[in-house]
Fold these 3 entries.
Entry 1:
Amino acid sequence: MSRELEPCQKIERSIITKYKRDLWNPFIKAIRDYELIQEGDRIAVCISGGKDSMLMAKLMQQLHRHSNVAFKVVYLVMDPGYNEINRQKIESNAALLNIPITVFETNIFAVANKTEKHPCYLCARMRRGHLYKQAQELGCNKIALGHHFNDVIETVVMGMFYSSLLQAMPPKLHSDHFPGMEVIRPMYCVHEDAILAWRNEHDLEFIQCACRFTENCTMCDNGGGGSKRQEIKTLLRRLKRDNPYIEKSIFNSIHAVSLDTMPGYKSRRVRHSFLERYDELG
């Protein structure tokens, strides 16, 4: 007679069974293709409390248990000033999923709440800075963020439509202000639909948005409603009806940029023109 699995065991097993193709395999693909983890790394897996970061924590936990590459992990939760319900939800989900979180407090929401202009931008910058600093104090050389495939392609389209930039979200990057620290995105190749399917399969409930400003509105990128990112999500869904491969096409395009056809580009914050090499190329 087989033993009944605990909820956490069922959730873990589904990652490498039912959702192996859609979650585990693309996760491993990103780790390998982009060389995100090296021997001796100490990685702060940053958990905001949403579905993406919670799944990332489980994927990293599974990898840590079974990888031939020796690395260490810290499951880091920053409290920027959550309300009691959100804080409790994160802690209860971490307990359910058997994720040993390390929580640290900040006053980010209180500070950002005092500014009328671009509070979300200020909040995001402060959150990233606090995460870097705390991870460094814990002896980590990398922080892992839960951005996924759809975040990547939406960022590309948003940059073109609203910022007049053809830019992407790299799978890893060095910190400008914290020498020796890197950001990695282990879920770079994981589609959001697969994350939602996994969440729904196990009746999991995660916080929708970590931001206090969005608790009574719908302008948050994670919460839906009227955000620019949500507009792009809707647009891509419509385009996908006619071209089922449009998301993959956008993703592949940022891996095959033809600089020789671009009239201008930026590198290391310096603008360049095609005229600089026009005669040479001719």
Note: The longest helix spans residues 119-137.
Entry 2:
Amino acid sequence: MSNQLTIFLLLMFSQALVPAAHAAPDAASCLTCHGAMQGSMEKEKGVIVNLNIDQDRFSKSVHSFLNCVECHMGFTSQPHQAPAARVDAAVQNLANALSAKSKIDAVAQAACAQVQCHGDVYKAYKASVHGQNVIVKKSSDGPVCTSCHGSPHYIQPRTGKDSRVNHFNVVETCGSCHEEKHLTEKYKFSPLVMERYKESFHGRKLKLGHSGAPACSDCHGAHDIRKAADPASPVSGANKLKTCGKCHPGATTKFVAAITHKPLHPVAHYAELGLIILTVGTFLFIIIHVLLDVYADIRDRLFRKGGNHE
């Protein structure tokens, strides 16, 4: 009962901050309540809305300078009523197109496309294989902005170590979909694509912290990803020479053909496995040999010392 009373008082206080009946509330007004609320609610069957916004995390995000209604368009000083403010027609049309994926607030998802925000990015996204899947095919399993970048309330700069699209995190972010078995079967992804990448020279360098090692977006692009068979794809046909040439000047057709996510041929797989066993076995033999030699030397010295004493 005390929690309900607290929220009620916060609501009354937040309303007092916005005297005009239909004025747009600022972020502080919204966070007065949503910073204190806990738990979630079911908007419709299967659609859960988290009511709490962590104010500390929000203050450190790249969107902390925005007012809530710049994305959550339509809301006024009466947030518990149906949205009443006017929504830009272009944003509303895109929201309708994204509705299959963005069930909580498609308008807020589409608000990213505003010219002053990420208009160019959205233009590239709509032409990409991901955008076509969501906007044209109305697929509910295609990615939108928040699928890769995370909650818009907590997005970190790309250079931040906690960013989901940081150079060292983006492989795991892509893998969250591309390693899903049902998506692999549905969209005919290359099998074990992420596993093959992690086992590759590029993947191993990235794991060791090499900033120059290419991650997914360095070769395939980010917002404008196309199918490999699409002539506009950076990994399609002759484009692959140019893409690989950014890191490997003078790369030839034979060179780029060796860079693939396809599973190794059985002969190559077992040859690689054999070389690993041989290398590890050689080092183990050397280490054991050295340890036995040291042990024998220590034993002989102690034996001779003991003999002289007698």
Note: The CA atoms of residues 7 and 158 lie 35 Å apart.
Entry 3:
Amino acid sequence: MAGTFKGGIHPNEGKGCSQDKPTTILLPKGDLVYPMVQHIGAPAKPIVAKGDKVLVGQKIAEAGGFVSACVISSVSGTVKAVEPRLTVMGNMVESIVVENDNEYTTVEGMGTKRDYTKLSKEEIRNCVKEAGIVGMGGAGFPTHIKLTPKNDDAIEYVIVNGSECEPYLTSDYRMMIEEPDKLVGGLKIILSLFPNATGIIAIEDNKPEAIKVMKNAVSNEKNIEVKVLKTKYPEGAERHLIYATTGKKINSSMLPADAGCVVNNVDTVISIYLAVAESTPLIRRVVTVSGDAVKDSKNFMVRTGTSYSELAEAAGGFVETPDKLISGGPMMGLAIYSLDLPVTKVSSALLAFKKDEVEAMPQTNCIHCGRCAKVCPSRLVPQKLMQCAIRFDNEGFEKLHGMECYECGSCTYVCPAGVHLTQAFKQTRRSILEERKKAK
């Protein structure tokens, strides 16, 4: 029986637009923009200046604190500026702008093969740190920290998140089909850090071809298994993925390591393999370009720093002017108003739709139907949380365990009144976090 969790929804998947098309390699044409914030934690600090020459694989910004990540140049060329640039978050972030010389000259040693079994744990973790790898499933938590829990022996499971439950997104699916050996190689590298751990590759049952490929890839691996999960959103959320695969429960005050788990998504694990086994830092990622306004939906292997406008052009442009553009998935992604934005380490998708379905739906008063509570994967009562949010009652919001909400959007999706629940919860949670920060 496929693993799952209570609650959740079944939105239109939309994956057929791109899932059966091979990933296309896209080399950038214009300038590359590298924001200093592509991760959770302190911003990176530039270590280059205007006029400097840079190479592919060269560190151009160092980690700005313990929870931070360095930034690596994905092209060779000249630094044009170090200045604020717009990001998908809608804010201006200090960024390094590099003029591409289209020669792609690499730093010495990049791409050199090495045997990870001859490296110490400290050397492996340092490889991941120096590669600038962060969680590429959306959160952007620095991976070297995730791979350094308090007690290596306490880790029981290393889970690869291959569920990819967000509608339209198929980049991880394509990587499981196209790069299974690198995925398994990356998982084996992680397992080498934790002597008591078993590897799990978790895949939803709407991906039979990926399940087949990955089962074949691990057929000779004694401590790695493929676990099939029931197709349901948000199956890929970390806490639900852990429960569905291991039966262990965590909440917002816990880390996966507290339950003996380490979780990484598919592209992150492949990036770990490239960093450790092939001396290649994080300079690329796979991005899904899809939606009913896109002419040729597909996945692109793209260099970080590339403009979203180049992604849209590579997909053939739009069949008509999109009414809605989203960076990421339609459930948890961010609406954007411009394509003059850079692809970062956490850019999973560019979606374009002819109509904005959310804006088109009229918002009325709550009818107390209870659907939001039924689908909430965190077992909350969104209707009551909304009352607190409207009254700016942060204390009441916390008493109702509102901080357990991780803004998956399930409640908003099923609400017949069109109430923007998730947006209100996002704002309230941010307000509470700011209050806590000031209190400290």
Note: The mean pLDDT is 95.
